[in-house]
């Protein structure tokens, strides 16, 4: 298949690179357009009040690659409408692999990763977002190392990327054009080659207190919280599936908003 790949962690993200390598190893045709720098928690924002610069780049991915100094949605929108050849048919837009999970109502709406996929759905294409769960300690260690993974984390992400390369064509083939659906896939921390996929729904999580009290200069800083899970026991949620060691697959059908 032919995939357009983006993310919200930026073009240099090892997780993005592993996804692209896995897709190409599975003989898929890949095009990459990604933000110049991290755009986490930016949701579906578009750069309304400034121009967006996009340039072709050789990032060692072995496929056509562009870097955008805007949001994930900027990148996908510009790529589909202006960068790809008019007669080039993209089968789906893939976003990720994100550094960290993207589960529950408290985080799905804010996710730049999911929004990058959503921009593909707005163009009538199947869309899939991939994210890798990490413990807070591992996340902090990864960030402190400048985005360089430990050998164990690199192996983990490669296993998850192989799953993504297997699942992407399946979910693409099962999604009708112009269906306004995003497949949200999250890989558990100890994902194995044989880890099963569990169909899930978004956990009902409230997330209060995401900012610190005001400092002496009057500023508030974001602090990460998983929030409080108010979900009923059934059906299985994305958050509980990860805790049980499953790959979580949630179908976000935006046509159901208001029902």
Any overview of this molecule?
The structure is a single chain. The chain is of the alpha/beta class. The chain has a single domain (2-201, 232-256), classed as 3-Layer(aba) Sandwich (Stationary-phase Survival Protein Sure Homolog, Chain: A), CATH 3.40.1210.10. Helix content is 30%, strand content 21%. The protein has seven helices and eleven strands. The strands form two sheets. The protein has a nine-stranded mixed β-sheet with strand order 3-4-2-1-5-6-7-11-8, sandwiched between helices. Strands 9-10 form a two-stranded antiparallel ribbon. Strand 3 and strand 4 (65-68) form a beta hairpin. Helix 1 (14-25) packs across helix 6 (151-173) and helix 2 (72-83) packs parallel to helix 4.
Provide keyphrases for this structure:
single chain, 259 residues, alpha/beta, Stationary-phase Survival Protein Sure Homolog, Chain: A, nine-stranded mixed β-sheet, two-stranded antiparallel sheet, 7 helices, 30% helix
What is the CATH T-level topology? Answer: Stationary-phase Survival Protein Sure Homolog, Chain: A
The number of domains: 1
User: How many DSSP H or I helices?
Assistant: 7
Shape: globular
What would you give as the CATH superfamily?
Survival protein SurE-like phosphatase/nucleotidase
Instruction: List the secondary-structure elements in sequence, H or E.
Output: EHEEEHEHHEHHEEEEHE
Biggest sheet, open or closed, and with what strands and sense?
9 strands, mixed
- Ends apart, CA distance between termini: 33 Å
**CATH class descriptor:** Alpha Beta
What percent of the residues sit in helical stretches (DSSP H or I)? Answer: 25-40%
Which strand order spans the largest sheet, edge to edge or round the barrel?
3-4-2-1-5-6-7-11-8
Helix- and strand-based class? alpha/beta
Report Rg: 18 Å
**What CATH architecture label applies?**
3-Layer(aba) Sandwich
Work out the strand percent.
15-25%
The strand count comes to 11
- Give the integer mean of the pLDDT values: 96
Low-pLDDT segments, ≥5 res: none
């Amino acid at each position: 298949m032919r995939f357009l790949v983006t993310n919200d962690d930026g073009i240099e993200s090892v997780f993005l690179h592993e996804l692209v390598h896995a897709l190409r190893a599975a003989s898929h045709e890949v095009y990459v357009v990604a933000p110049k720098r991290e755009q986490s928690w930016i949701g579906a924002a578009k750069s309304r009040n400034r121009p967006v610069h996009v340039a072709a780049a050789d990032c060692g991915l072995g496929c056509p690659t562009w870097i955008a100094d805007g949001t994930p949605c900027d990148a996908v929108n510009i790529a589909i409408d202006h960068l790809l050849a008019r007669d080039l048919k993209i089968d789906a837009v893939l976003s990720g692999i994100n550094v960290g999970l993207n589960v529950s109502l408290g985080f799905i709406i804010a996710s730049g990763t999911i929004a990058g996929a959503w921009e593909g759905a707005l163009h009538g294409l199947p869309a899939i977002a991939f994210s890798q769960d990490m413990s807070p300690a591992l996340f902090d260690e990864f960030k402190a190392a400048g985005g360089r993974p430990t050998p164990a984390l690199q192996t983990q992400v490669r296993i998850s990327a192989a799953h993504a390369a297997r699942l992407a064509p399946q979910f693409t083939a099962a999604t009708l054009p112009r269906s306004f659906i995003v497949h949200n896939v999250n890989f558990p921390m100890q994902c194995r080659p044989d880890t099963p996929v569990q169909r899930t729904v978004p956990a009902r999580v409230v997330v209060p207190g995401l900012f610190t009290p005001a400092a002496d200069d009057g500023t508030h800083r974001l602090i990460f919280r998983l929030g409080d899970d108010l979900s009923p026991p059934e059906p299985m949620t994305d958050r509980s599936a990860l805790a049980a060691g499953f790959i979580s697959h949630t179908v976000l059908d935006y046509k159901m908003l208001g029902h």
